[in-house]
Amino acid sequence: MERKSFQLGDIVQMKKPHPCGTNAWKVIRMGMDIRMKCTGCGHSVLLPRSRFEKRMKKVLEPSREEGKQDQS
């Protein structure tokens, strides 16, 4: 199975909506666990990477850091 690609700061869509009604989450921490923040109510959730990748549908908005390169 191919790994899904996402980056820090991306807005992602999950398979199930949050109880507040929105389905968009911002990735705010990456590692073995992924911390994401609901864009509707601001609730933060920590998921293991494997569970996050199973539940993620797609990237809605890529992070703004994607086009930037280190200028030093």
UniProtKB/TrEMBL annotation:
Please give the superkingdom of this protein's source: Bacteria
| InterPro entries in the record | DUF951
What's the protein called, per UniProt?
A: DUF951 domain-containing protein
Q: Which organism is it from?
A: Melghirimyces profundicolus
